[in-house]
Amino acid sequence: MFGYLFVFRIGEKFGLPPPSGQTNLIEMIIVLRVVGVAFEINGSWLAISNAKKKETEASETKTNSDMERDDEFVELINPEFIDLFHYTFNYIGLLTGPYYRYRTFDDYFYLPFNKHVDCFGFTINTLKIVPLYISLYLAFSNIWPLEYILTEEHNNRHFLYRMMYPWVLFAAFRQRIYAGMTLAESVCTSAGLGAYPVQGKNRTGHGPTVGYLKLKKMSDDEAKMTEYDFKTVESMDVWGCETVVTLRDSMKVWNKAVQYWVAMVVYKRFPVKSLKVHAALFVSVIWHGFHAGYFFCIYFCPFYLMAEDIYYKLYYKEATGLKKKIIGFIMWFLRSHSESYQAAAFLLLTFDRIWIYYSSVYHYWYGVWLAFLVTGLILSKVRAMLRPKTQKAIRTEVKE
After folding, report:
1. How far is CA 134 from the centre of its chain?
2. Do 215 and 196 touch, CB atoms closer than 8 A?
3. Which residues, listed in sequence order, are joined to residue 197 by a DSSP beta bridge?
4. Where do the H-state alpha helices sit in 217-320?
5. What does residue 182 show for φ and ψ, rounded to 5 degrees?
6. Between vectors from CA 299 to CA 154 and to CA 18, what angle results, nearest 5°?
7. 90 is catalytic
8. Which of 96, 48, 86 is nearest to 70 (CA)?
9. Active site residue 255
10. Is 20 left (phi over 0), alpha (psi -120 to 50) or beta?
11. Cα 358 from Cα 335, distance rounded (Å)
12. Is the CB of residue 25 less than 8 Å from the CB of residue 255?
């Protein structure tokens, strides 16, 4: 599927007409579905066979909580070819997501939940914020256009202006994504796809994480009286995107359905633990496309995380009260600034355009990152050296 996506994107170099942006989005979603359902089928076979072995070996040690808690797979997934075809090309979520599992698609037809959920109410509630996103996007993109960043006038502005300009570019980009993802979610909510009872503790992309087999046995009368949510098809945690402190947490709340796919298909299955993040982000890069901007933007994340994790453990993790709020704000600012700097590359796409902007600010952020990383490593070693002395002094005081 990724090979086909590669050929699809470079076809114009061989004389084929260039694909439209909408067609590219559809191809991207189809890749997720086809690859995802293959791993879903494989995972269910492995999980069921392993579960049977465990039951025969240690059935007497299994507790009630073990029985109630569902694993990733609790039943065999074995669709017919026609089911795979309909899942792959199902219009709901095809244009720009969200990604959902084959099990969610199958449940849509065979479980009663979409008949009893308030689709209209959920859809209106989902759509009511879209005008704000669109208004902010139009305002930001007109006042601070992307192309201005490549002009001589921009290059002659003060360094701080050039340094902060990506903040408004990224702000405009976020509003566009928020609007698009919210509209995509509304297609699901209006159709009822992804509706599950709240007691299933539903997770984006996955669906119910607790008591799935019990939910399947729910009667029609019980389904009428149940409270529902659409968390299974929730793509963006907008408040989280704007407020989380670390880049690691930001990655978890941005395009959550695709993040779920990357985690399940790549991250959890990649055999080398130290390279899991690199493998997941590399797949994310080539899924987005082959422009240099995607590599500059997405693949810088693991390097930023190296520095961020150090300071998180050194200062933020154990901080409390006002100190935690101050450190949290500093980390939020650095996270937001790094994302804006990376987003500039994502939006500019080609290497020559990226180089024009990054040269105008002297590629400063890579230097800042390297300085933070080296300083953090030194501070970590100093703290590690001081810790045994501190512990020894505490033991001495206790003995006295």
Report:
1. 22
2. yes
3. 228
4. 220-224, 238-243, 247-253, 256-262, 276-288, 292-298, 301-311
5. -65, -40
6. 75
7. no
8. 48
9. yes
10. beta
11. 18
12. no
Longest C-alpha distance within the chain, in Å?
Answer: 84
| CA separation, residue 110 to residues 115, 212, 381 (Å) | 11, 14, 58
Residues 192 and 136: beta-carbon distance below 8 Å: no
Per-residue pLDDT tens listing for the chain (400 residues) = 999 888 888 888 888 888 888 888 999 999 999 999 999 998 888 887 777 677 666 555 544 444 344 446 777 888 999 999 999 999 999 988 899 999 999 999 999 999 999 999 999 999 999 999 999 999 999 999 999 999 999 999 999 999 999 999 999 999 999 999 999 999 999 999 999 999 999 999 999 998 888 898 898 889 999 999 999 999 999 999 999 999 999 999 999 999 999 999 999 999 999 899 899 999 999 999 889 999 999 989 999 999 999 999 999 999 999 999 999 999 999 999 999 999 999 999 999 999 999 999 999 999 999 999 999 999 999 988 887 655 555 555 555 5
Cβ contacts of 69-73, under 8 Å, gap ≥ 24? 69/210, 70/208, 70/209, 70/210, 70/211, 70/212, 70/213, 71/47, 72/43, 72/47, 72/206, 72/264, 73/40, 73/43, 73/44, 73/46, 73/47, 73/48
Catalytic pick among 86, 154, 278, 288:
288
Which is catalytic among the residues 116, 202, 255, 291? 255
pTM above 0.85, yes or no: yes
Look up residue 34 and give its amino acid.
V
